[in-house]
Design goal:
This protein is mostly helical. It has 20 helices and 6 strands.
Length: 519
């Protein structure tokens, strides 16, 4: 009898945690497959890597497909279903939590990078990788605000705007000296550099001169900020319409339910997609040993900071407010965290985050619908920590000393920039321009960390999702009285409607939901 009970209990545990186990297995298989294929597939074999990534692309496409209906339906349903006073209190608690935890993440990053000094611990020069985004801090900040108010709601579903300055192009030709004792048409030119005198072929250099014009350019990609702002105001106004707005509220409630059902279907495919996303990324790595050696201390600083924030600060904040076990809550979010690590996008992970909160951690759907879409857009604890560390790392590498005032500016701008970072892969590189420009560091030096950004992006995305999840749990606990009052009011209205339908007149209604009638 005892063996049978243990067997049944074991089966129940496996059944309840099947998706989590599949996701863990997917990560293990993906890493093993990627490392194993590196000896068979070259990083330059773009065609093979493209086909290897195909199942992962399908997962990303399905998740991104659900972002639009999920954000719009959840926010409008949540706002229209909450009283103005309750939604105001819930929104205030949410924003305070987001700001405080993001600022804590920045402080942790600054303390670690100042103590470890990864920019000064290098044996050789770090290779600049790729090209960086030429942007000005003020322009990037204004772009974030401008995208909050799109001029066309339909185009906001697939477009966003960006400031595009046009500079005068100036070509500089290096000083050259013909080599002596040369005959014929062959010549050797000498190019003077900062550190060495080398025999090279003279090549012109193009730099940017004065600003010729500045305008707005349309970029592809969903304008999530604009959709969030519109949905919040739309739902709030809809709630004030009362009975007149009820039919439209029912439409968005139904849309949210259908979207969540579709999410349940996609979730079962997610382990396959995550496996191939990880494998293809590992195969595409170029010179990983050299990359990890050059940026080892920088990586260590970021990862230690993220670990402290994820496993100490966030659980401590959750425990202080709820008096519940934060690590059991974290375990309930494991599937969402693994998906975030695999996709490197908190917005793409949003459907699974909401599902885990409601199904595994039993957070009220009204809180989930209100908190998590906003969190996926504005709450970026991991990104804020990363930007603070990266900015000071770049300053250390360039031997640019930062005073206390500049460090304070970095902490404030990193917090503000992270709040506006979109929940897409490598969004932190875009808002990095704000942080670097604020303290006078060259934006193009972002190239120093491009080689390793894709790897760290996965960890900071998982921390972002964890921060959103803890925020939903805290707001759910603090708002339980408001939610109970709304439930009682809803039940009262239901009973009054039933009484009127039956030709009865309601005299009293107690808090237990009992009612008495009088003929």
């Amino acid at each position: 009898m005892g063996n049978r009970q243990r067997s049944e209990k074991c089966k129940k545990i496996i059944k309840d945690n099947l998706l989590v186990l599949l996701m863990i297995l997917a990560v293990i298989i993906g890493v093993s497959m990627g490392l194993g294929l590196r000896s068979q597939v070259s990083a330059d074999d773009k065609k093979t890597i493209f086909y290897l990534k195909f199942p992962g692309d399908l997962l990303l496409n399905m998740l991104k497909m659900l972002i639009l209906p999920l954000i719009v339906s959840s926010l409008i349903s949540a706002m229209s279903g909450l009283k103005a006073q309750a939604s105001g209190r819930m929104g205030f608690r949410t924003l305070i939590y987001y700001f405080v935890t993001t600022f804590c993440a920045v402080i942790i990053g600054i303390v670690l990078v100042v103590a470890i000094e990864p920019g000064k611990k290098r044996e050789s020069a770090i290779e600049r990788s790729g090209s960086s985004k030429a942007a000005e801090g003020l322009s990037s900040l204004l772009d974030l605000i401008r995208n909050c108010f799109p001029d066309n709601l339909i185009s906001a579903c697939f477009q966003k705007v960006e400031t595009k300055p046009q500079y005068e192009k100036i070509t500089i030709y290096p000083q050259t000296t013909p080599a002596p004792n040369m005959t014929g048409n062959s010549t050797i030119t000498i190019e003077t550099t900062d550190t060495t005198m080398s025999m090279t072929t003279a090549a012109p250099k193009v730099i940017e001169g004065k600003l010729l014009s500045i305008g707005i350019e349309i970029q592809s990609g969903m304008n999530v900020l604009g959709l969030v702002v519109f949905s919040l105001f739309f739902g709030g106004i809809l709630a004030r319409l009362g009975e007149k707005g009820k039919p439209l509220i029912d439409v968005f409630d139904c849309l949210h339910l259908v979207t969540m059902k579709l999410i349940n279907l996609v979730i079962w495919y997610s382990p396959i997609g995550v496996t191939f996303l990880i494998a293809s990324k590992l195969v595409a790595m170029e010179r990983p040993a050299e990359m990890f050696t050059q940026l080892g201390f920088y990586m260590l600083t970021v990862l230690v900071g993220l670990a402290i924030h994820a496993f100490i600060i966030l659980p401590l904040v959750y425990f202080i407010f709820t008096r519940k076990n934060p690590y059991s809550f974290m375990y309930g979010m494991l599937q969402a965290l693994l998906t975030a690590w695999g996709t490197a996008s908190s917005s793409a992970t949003l459907p699974i985050t909401m599902n885990c909160l409601e199904e595994r951690n039993h957070v009220d759907p009204r809180v989930t619908m209100f908190v998590t879409p906003i969190g996926a857009t504005v709450n970026m604890d991991g990104t804020a920590l990363y930007e603070a560390v990266a900015a000071i790392f770049i300053a250390q590498y360039l031997d640019e000393p930062l005073n206390f005032g500049q460090i304070v500016i970095i902490s404030l701008t990193a917090t503000a920039a992270a709040i506006g970072a979109a929940g897409v892969p490598s969004a932190g590189l875009v808002t990095m321009a704000i942080v670097l420009s604020a303290v006078g560091l060259p934006v193009e030096e972002v190239r120093l960390i491009l080689a390793i950004d894709w790897f760290l992006d996965r960890f900071r995305t998982a921390v972002n999702v964890l921060g959103d999840s803890y925020g939903a749990g805290i707001v759910n606990h603090l708002s339980r009285q408001d939610l109970e009052e709304m439930d009682l009011e809803e039940n009262k209205q239901k009973y009054l409607t039933e009484d009127k339908t039956n030709g009865l007149v309601n005299d009293s209604y107690d808090t237990k939901g009992d009612h008495s009638t009088k003929m």
